[in-house]
Amino acid sequence: MSDDYKQPLTHVIVGQKIWASVIIAPGDVHPAQSKNKMSTASKAIFDGKAPVKKQLIVLAITESKTHFICVYTSTFGSSSKLDPKKVVDSRNWLPIHPAVGVYEALAQPQGGDGLAGWICLSQTILVSIADESVQPLQVFYPEDSVAKIKGKVGL
Q: Which domain of life is it from (predicted)?
């Protein structure tokens, strides 16, 4: 891999969705009754030590321009309603239309897939701009949606 390829991702913008390998703090979802029923990603999240590849929404870029400040998204199998057996607190999840939850759902982003989705509000995640696992997606949330998310997470 050439050094040119390792340049920081300066073309990612606030409101854009990215893939990145991150460590998700456990505590927002209940573990399955059996580890055999858990996905590999779920096992990594509950372990809390291994990175898992997740879709994130970039809410801001640090003043030093070295990190993205993000929230992660989940689909819960494209479920339009949260299953109380799976989530610890429904107030920690912001729905993306057509999902319905405690809060008013955000509209689908430009380039979105039209499926129900959920944004975790209980944690923000710092991702290095130089992180080679980052893959920008052509999915963009408008400024008002980003502002709503930032308000919910306290940014």
A: Eukaryota
Which phi and psi angles does 78 have, rounded to 5°? Answer: 60, 25
Q: Which of 54, 121, 128, 58 shows the shortest CA–CA distance to 93?
A: 121
Ramachandran sector of residue 132 (left: φ over 0; alpha: ψ -120 to 50; beta: rest): alpha
Least confident of 12-16, 40-44, 59-63, 127-131: 40-44
